[in-house]
Amino acid sequence: MDILAYSAVELSAAIKQGTVTAVEAMAAVLSRIDERERDINAYVTMDREQALKAAAAVQEKIEKGELNGVLAGVPVAVKDNLCTEGMRTTCSSKILENFVPTFSAEAVVNLEKAGAVVIGKTNMDEFAMGSTTETSAYGVTRNPWNTDHVPGGSSGGSAAAVAAGECYFALGSDTGGSIRQPASFCGVVGLKPTYGTVSRYGLVAYGSSLDQIGPLTKNVADCAAVLEVIASHDVKDATSINRKEENKDTDFTAALVDDVKGMKIGIPRDYFGEGLDGEVKDAVLAAAKQLAAKGAVVEEFDLSLVAYAIPAYYTIAAAEASSNLERFDGIKYGYRAASFEGLHDMYKKTRSEGFGAEVKRRIMLGSFVLSSGYYDAYYLKALKVKAMIKNAFDDAFAKYDLILGPVAPTTAPKQGESLSDPLKMYLGDIYTISVNLAGLPAISLPCGKDSKGLPIGLQLIADSFQEKKLIQAAYTYEKQ
Amino acid sequence: MAKQYETVIGLEVHVELATKTKIFCGCSTAFGGAPNTHTCPVCTGMPGSLPVLNRQVVNAAMAVGLATNCTITQYCKFDRKNYFYPDNPQNYQISQLYLPICRNGHVDIETSEGKKSVGIHEIHMEEDAGKLIHDEWEDCSLVDYNRSGVPLIEIVSEPDMRSAEEVIAYLEKLRMIVQYLGASDCKLNEGSMRADVNLSVREVGAETFGTRTEMKNLNSFRAITHAIAGERERQIELLESGQQVTQETRRWDDAKEYSYAMRSKEDAQDYRYFPDPDLPPIYISDEWIAQIRDSQPEFREEKMARYKTEFDIPEYDIGIITDSKHLADLFEETVAICGQPKKVSNWLMGETLRLLKEKGMDPEEICFSPENLAKLIGLVDSKAVNSTVAKEVFEVMFAEDMDPEKYVEEKGLKTVNDEGALRKAVEEVIRANPQSVADYRGGKEKAIGFLVGQTMKAMRGKADPGTVNKVLRELL
């Protein structure tokens, strides 16, 4: 079997069996990267020697029986907004072009403890602000299915790397759809967990009340396995939930069951209105039919408030980001302007030169909605809308186990067509954004291709802490 | 007729809490230490770092709130105050604006004008900033983040004070309360207590407040008193000459006894306060409040009242001893061992205070134990040492807290109570000083003093002067 054809879990099993080694897997991945990176540009930073060395060290541990988890020996790509100790972490921004963290994000630590081996850091929209990975300061990433198109964003590099076989799985982050949308554009599986499930310690903050780290994988079984490894209660993150001990529902791989009999699935009418591409609509509804054929009870319903999700999201995310990004000031680390006169000029020049246009736009927007005189009308109001959206989902989940819909209104747009109209670009987040506002878990999985051959994604949304329902339904659909 | 002006004063007092670790991370709050050695990714604003609240800070804030009659805000939050400055690693300070932990309290003070209640508007928790050091030689500024993240509580009073005397009384009361709680050592000159004075003037009888200014850099009670007088004068002069007072922050220079404007509060920054999304709201249960209330120490007034009835010592002594919790504890614990309140009080009021003053120390810094003080008192009682020797031993004990009984043994300082040896010495002295003997016998009482002195010298101080006196008179 072609070593790159293994899924993450299959690879680890093969390594433990002795069929292949971790070093061989890493070498194969590096080889594939050599082949395709020029066209795809999924990675910002890679250290080949270090990666092979790390793989060799893990291989030894596996042989000694010291590492026997389901991901031991598997090469992983990490989105560049997750801190990796000793390895450059840029958030695809110029302002961090030489920043090397002194610690690793908790999710990365969990993966490394389980024996996964980091290949390198993947490209993204700068500071996770974007939907196409075109705002990166390190060049665009291209969709492996058709390099004239974008891979989606902001975890575009991670999604492309998985799709192109440049890694076995990847970590991304999702604040408004940044795992799910690129997963759908690149034809891979992507999951955003319930807020508080994966520690945010070490994730460079964008929208603190919305951010979550999650897996991008080749299939649902891998997704469940990775989620199980990275989910943990972390005392260093005050928003981290102790699900293992208190809720006892982190055995995600136990949900890999081919069965949806009796599952109640709701399809929001509001998601299928104007603006949704016909081919995407057909593919998603066809998927719903398939689940119905396997015993799920599928029906339409009104979700409501969908129209308010985008303004609420951008208000809240930009507000939090405008504060979170204040630390990038040229004083302590990162880029500092070469010439300036006095402290405040240094701040201005450093940030003007170090940040890209989209980041500056959102910082300005965020500063505005928090400013005196506008706080109540914008930020406070957005928080109230957020609460109302959560209530709307609560009502929906009183009736349904899952909500089904598209991930994005279209398949991957062409390169260079999105940034000129930011508002239009923002509207593309319509199906993913409310999930973050409500803190819910959701998964994106491939459900077909359009006539151009570009992947279409199916989104399943569950109530808080119900990832297992997502996984079960996704697994069942995948088994078709 | 000249107009009469009333001064209206409110205070914002920042107190550095004496918790072991910082408010949002586990770094040490210990003073000193080489720059940037008590730091971590959290208190240096590294990307990806997150704050986690130190529960002891909440306990301390609640304790101070309860001791100042505040209501505890049982659902409270932290907010971010956003502004750019190098001593602020994230360029936002985590503080509390919308829901401070304590509100609507008061503190009772007493001045020459009588008793008064000063209202406390609120108390909130926040983090301290780092320290900037300006290197003139290299023409650059350096930042030390050791202090960044040290927990502070800010106590905001109502504008209820009308004079420098009231302000000092209020600050002393606050300091007493906070020290008694062990929440902070509250030293103005070390920065563990910082006071900003908000002052305005208005004509006596006016119903509205005048425009106020804020004064900073007040590092001693003296500076505060001068600043208040100076600012009152400055504002009155402005108003009398038809001008207006500008709302601004002024920095007081105590050496020059003069203040100058720092920045106008009008074009003050918009801090864009919003609730910190990294910190969940704090739910304070009735049980938690009860727990803090139950562990409150007995405060000074209660202590003073109790001492009056329990120990028969003068009110003046009680006042001095209870002025410091450490001193009061030392007093009670020593009395518990030796049962001699008057004697213990004498040692504290006399020698202890004297040495504290001489060495410029605070009562909090006394290091000798109640056991050792009790032992020393025992040695004097049993006449094992005389009072002169006792004082010498005490000085060593004050510095080193050694066991006085052991010390007296080792150094051979015991009073010689052997009457025989004493008589011999006295006889020697009588023989050696015929003139003084003649003087005494001739009616000069004072001469015996000299003879006692000579005897003490001969005995190397190890005699009881009273006994020496008695023997001398016998033999003469």
Question: Would you write up a description of this structure?
Answer:
The complex is a heterodimer of chains A (480) and B (476). Helices cover 40% and strands 13% of the residues of chain A. With 480 residues, chain A is of the alpha/beta class. The longest helix of chain A is centred in the C-terminal third of the chain and has 24 residues, at 376-399. Chain A contains 16 helices and 11 strands. In chain A, strands 1-3-2-4-6-5-10-11-9-7-8 form an 11-stranded mixed sheet, with helices on both faces. Chain B has helices at residues 55-67, 164-181, 221-240, 286-294, 300-310, 315-321, 325-338, 341-359, 370-381, 387-400, 404-411, 419-432, 434-441, 446-458, 465-475, and strands at 5-16, 71-72, 75-76, 79-82, 92-95, 102-111, 114-127, 131-135, 140-144, 151-157, 193-203, 213-218, 248-253, 258-264, 274-275, 282-283. Chain B is α+β, with helices and mostly antiparallel strands. In chain B, 40% of the residues lie in helices and 21% in strands. Classes of the chains: A alpha/beta (480), B alpha+beta (476). The A-B interface holds A 82-83, 89, 91, 96, 99, 101-103, 105, 200-205, 208-209, 235-239, 319-320, 322-323, 326-329, 331-333, 343-344, 347, 367, 370-372, 375, 379 and B 41, 44-53, 80, 82, 84, 86, 89-92, 143, 270, 272-274, 277-280.
CA-based gyration radius of chain B:
30 Å
Name the CATH architecture of the domain at 3-255 in chain A: Alpha-Beta Complex
Shape of chain B: elongated
Strands of the widest sheet of chain A, in order across it, are 1-3-2-4-6-5-10-11-9-7-8
E-strand count of chain B: 16
Shape of chain A: globular
Greatest interface: A-B, 43 and 28 residues
Largest sheet of chain A: 11 strands, mixed
Number of helices of chain A: 16
Show unreliable segments of chain B.
none
| Alpha carbon gap, first and last residue of chain B | 80 Å
CATH top level class name of the domain at 3-255 in chain A: Alpha Beta
Order of SSEs of chain A:
HHEHEHEHEHEEHHEHEHHHHEHHEEH
Oligomer: heterodimer
Helix-strand category of chain A: alpha/beta
The major pleated sheet of chain B works out as: 9 strands, mixed
- Based on CA atoms alone, the radius of gyration of chain A comes out at 21 Å
- Distance from N terminus to C terminus of chain A (CA atoms, Å) equals 23 Å
**Mean pLDDT across residues of chain B:** 90
**Portion of residues in helices of chain B?**
40-55%
Fold-level CATH name of the domain at 3-255 in chain A = Amidase signature (AS) enzymes
